[in-house]
Each structure stands twice: as structure tokens, then as C-alpha cells.
Amino acid sequence: MKRGKKYQDAVKQVERTVYYEPLEAMELVKKTAPAKFDETVEAVVSLGVDPRHADQQVRGAVVLPHGTGKTRTVLVFAKGDKIKEAEEAGADFVGAEDMVAKIQQEGWLGFEVAIATPDMMSLVGRLGRILGPRGLMPNPKTGTVTFDVAQAVREVKAGKIEYRVDKAGIIHAPVGKVSFEAQKLADNLRTLIEQLIRVKPAAAKGQYIKNVTVCSTMGPGIKVSYQKVTA
Questions:
Q1: Cα within 13 Å of Cα(76), Cβ side
Q2: Interval 53-77: pLDDT, tens
């Protein structure tokens, strides 16, 4: 794959064999982001787990202290008093049977996060084939199935992200935008790594966190000394 001149110039600024300290890595991410738009900064964390085994799955959610730089559109499946709670907390869409019908019949997917109260899951379950493959299905593990819909909505709006290990044992997660201060990006990365350490599966053996790399949307990968991320 042939890369553009801006990318080639950015790569020259990164020592491929060096593991940078978190703050230094984030300063380099900002410096090597080649695009004119405000690129997303992503963390790529390689874990020593085998996702083929249910007891080595790593999945959950965490609220980043400085947010992601993006306001996410939230749909809440609720009824009764929970409708008002969700609306007052800032939910973009709230409903029950009407929203299920809109998704089923119109193919509407104008939201990025779906939250549901537990009593709505029998209804929402009908949408499994639509929402599941797109990662939009409410799930207790990510805090999106709860009676405290107000808190759930506020957390998403404040910068809550979901993470899930892929088939290769790797976590991909956004930790901010290039326009963020380097220190804020480093803080967000630290919060993510600390969370992954907290949810380490008991069945995981050997080295748990193998590698941490950060990059902007269009920029080169920069290796981070993960031991110093939580120091």
C-alpha cells in the first residue's frame, strides 16, 4: 500500500523501536497527525487472552475523565416515569414499542448508543438481529441495561466508551481528539488501561498487557511504555 507524502513525513518522526512515555507519545501523536480535520486518537491494546474461551472475554465500558471530543446520540427504551428521567438527562430519543417498530419497519438507526431498562429487554430482544451485529444492543456488561437511565445517559454524554476484545485479543478504543491537550489524552489512556487491568480475567495466564500503541486516524502507530501509563 502506497502512503501519501504527509504520512511518510510523519513516520520519519517516530522511532519504531522506541517505547515512549505516555505524555511524550501523545505529544508525538498530535505532531504527526497529517489530516486537516480533527482526527480521533485511538489506543490499541494487545492482551494476553484467548477470546475463544468465554472465561477470557474482556468487555465493558469506562468513562474517560476528559471525554472523547464527540457527543454521541442516545436512544433509550423505557416507559412510565423513566421516559421523563431519560429526556431530562439528555437522551436524544426515548420510546418503547414505537421505537422498536421504527427500527423494524423503517430500518431506522439514527443513534450511536442504545440504553434500556431491564423490563424493556423482552421487547428490545426482538431487535437482536438488527442491533447485535452493529454493536448497538443494550448489554448489562456495558451498563446500558439499567433502571438508572438518567445516570447511564449522563455517562455516555460525558465520554463513556465501550471496549471489547476482538478475535486477535486486541482492544481498539478512542481516547480523544488530536485537538486535546497531550496531558488530557494521556489521562484518558491511563483510565482505559487501569480499567482493563481491573477486569483482567482470572483465567488469563502469563503477560496480560502485551503492547500498547496509540495513533491518530490518519497517523502512524506510536508504541507506549505501558508500565509507565499507570505509574
A1: 29
A2: 999 999 999 999 999 998 899 999 9
Query: What are the CA-CA distances from residue 75 to residues 29, 95, 112, 124 (Å)?
Result: 33, 8, 8, 12
171 and 151 belong to one structural domain: no
Contact 136, 108 (CB under 8 A): no
Q: What pTM was computed for the model?
A: 0.82
Contacts of 48 (CB under 8 A, 6+ apart): 169, 204, 205, 206, 207, 208, 209, 210
Name every residue whose Cβ is closer than 8 Å to that of residue 156 and which is 6 or more positions away in sequence: 72, 74, 113, 115
Residue 79: strand, helix, or coil: coil
Give the structural domain span for 177.
13-68+160-229
Please tell me the total count of domains within the chain.
2
* Amino acid at residue number 15: E
CA distances from 1 to 38, 105, 135 (A): 24, 41, 29
CATH code for the domain of 139: 3.40.50.790
Residue at a domain's end among 158, 179, 201: 158
* pLDDT at residue 140, as a whole number: 92
Shared domain check, 169 and 148: no
Whole-angstrom distance, CA of residue 184 vs CA of residue 193? 14
**Shared-domain flag, residues 150 and 78:** yes
Q: Give 218's contacts (C-beta < 8 A, 6+ positions apart).
A: 7, 33, 34, 35, 39
Question: 49 near 202, Cβ under 8 Å?
Answer: no
